[in-house]
Specification:
Low-confidence stretches: 1-19
Distance between the termini: 24 Å
Radius of gyration: 27 Å
Oligomer: single chain
Bound molecules: zinc ion
Shape: elongated
Structural class: alpha/beta
Length: 444
């Protein structure tokens, strides 16, 4: 008996002696990206252009790359249509005879003209929006005055047509979108009609955002209402304020102290940022060379904080700034060949992982012959369901490690021991609601 006790004491002593020698023992962190990968890439498409689904999607499916498709929900037959919400149109048109456009009536007029049913009228709305967003307020008012003069003198007709600015008519159905979502793609909102949200009044701005969300929720499910992209890459603060209350994530903006956001027109190089994460948006327009596109991926390979967000539009001649099938094939293969180092995931999934990692509190405790790791998070586990990758330093003496998850009694996983300059470690994945994990040496 005495012998047994002293043996036990020696064993405990050895374990704690080792502990002293191995400074990082038990230290646990959530890796920056899942699987301890180098960087992340999201392949996104705007406008729901037919060739994105018939040409680009099959290439991605063949390689197992998920994409994010921001679709214009008013294009599908069964969804809420683009419509003006407000006073009778005649009343508004009548008023433009005696009162010029000003700060008090601009949003109402810029909203109304967008839904009068001709491409020309939508151009007035859209161009006025562009002027407004670039600070040319007087010019924006004048353009709206001109548009309404055309409406009054009949040069612009009011029709019942639904017009989508700069967008070809597409034939993709909700049933097809459901199928694409089941393949692993993210199908998300790009509003009802692709309006210039910055110049819509409150009622119409809310309709574009909320109706689109309601249709996606109805036809595809809640999961696809997480992220959205407001048209024209707007960063208008008023729009962002409304949209952030409706969608948890926006490709436009989502300010966080730890996240640098470089939009498509930014000239800054992502390596200039000191922030923990850099969301680096790049638009592979028609004239952007393959070499430049590949260099973006190379930058991801050389740094550990980059989330490259690619923004595609047209494909094979259809849609704005199209890329060809051959270019997409070559580029996606280039990304796929680096998949061991790069996490390719939807916009929603990358957002979720980063937020889960920033929110989670990890605590680890060294027990007699095991390490207990506890994890707690304030985020809703039903929404934030991306497994986090944990890295824990284990005793050098351990020959093999098993992972026991308290919440799922029977799950036991053997983990591979790896090492770096700080010691021996294991990598394993955990959901934020798993609470406690025990790492133990696997005894023969
Ligand atoms: Zn768009």
């Amino acid at each position: 008996m005495k012998n047994k006790i002293s043996l036990l004491l020696i064993a405990i002593c050895c374990f704690s002696c080792n502990t002293k020698m191995e400074e990082n023992l038990g230290q646990t962190l959530i890796t920056k990206w899942p699987g301890d990968k180098q960087s992340a890439i999201s392949i996104t498409y705007d406008d729901g252009i037919i060739n994105q689904f018939t040409v680009a999607r099959p290439i991605m499916n063949k390689l197992g790359l998920p994409g994010t498709f921001y679709i214009i929900t008013g294009k599908m037959k069964e969804s809420g249509k683009g419509q003006f919400i407000g006073r009778p149109a005649d009343e508004i048109i009548e008023e433009t005879i005696s009162s010029r456009t000003n700060a008090d009536n601009f949003f109402e007029r810029a909203s109304m003209i967008a839904y009068t049913g001709t491409t020309e009228a939508v151009e007035y709305h859209s161009n006025a929006g562009s002027l407004f967003e670039s600070g040319k307020i007087t010019e924006a008012y004048e353009l709206i005055d001109e548009g309404f003069e055309q409406l009054r003198n009949g040069k612009l007709k009011t029709t019942n047509d639904i017009v989508f600015h700069n967008n070809a008519v597409d034939t993709t159905t909700w049933a097809e979108y459901k199928k694409y979502a089941a393949e692993g793609h993210e199908i998300a909102s790009h509003t009802v009609t692709h309006a210039r949200l910055a110049v819509l009044d409150e009622a119409n701005l809310l309709y574009e955002l909320e109706q689109s969300k309601a249709d996606i929720q109805h036809f595809l499910g809640e999961k696809y209402t997480f992220s959205a992209e407001c048209p024209y890459g707007t960063e208008n603060e008023r729009v962002m304020e409304y949209a952030h209350k409706i969608y948890p994530a926006l490709r436009n903006r989502m300010p966080e102290p730890y996240l640098e956001e470089l939009n498509r027109s930014s000239k800054r190089h992502p390596t200039d940022s000191e922030k923990e994460y850099v969301q680096w948006q790049r638009g592979p327009l028609t004239n952007v060379s393959m070499d430049v596109m590949k260099s973006w991926v190379d930058t991801c390979m050389e740094n550990d904080n980059i989330w490259l967000v690619l923004v595609f539009h047209g494909v094979n001649g259809i849609g704005w700034e199209p890329k060809s099938e051959a270019e997409l094939e070559e580029y996606f293969n280039y990304i796929n060949e680096r998949k061991n180092e790069l996490w390719v995931a939807t916009f929603a999934d990358v957002t979720k992982y980063i937020r889960e990692r920033k929110d989670a509190v990890i605590h680890s405790e060294i027990l007699k012959d095991a390490i207990a790791v506890t994890i707690s998070s304030k985020l809703d586990p039903k929404v934030y369901d991306i497994p986090m990758t944990l890295k824990t330093y284990v005793p050098k003496a351990w020959k093999s490690v098993i992972q026991n998850n308290k919440s799922t009694q029977d799950s036991q996983l053997e983990l591979k021991i790896q090492n770096d300059t700080l010691g021996h470690y294991v990598i394993y994945s955990v959901l934020s609601n798993e609470h406690e994990i025990i790492l133990q040496e696997l005894k023969e």
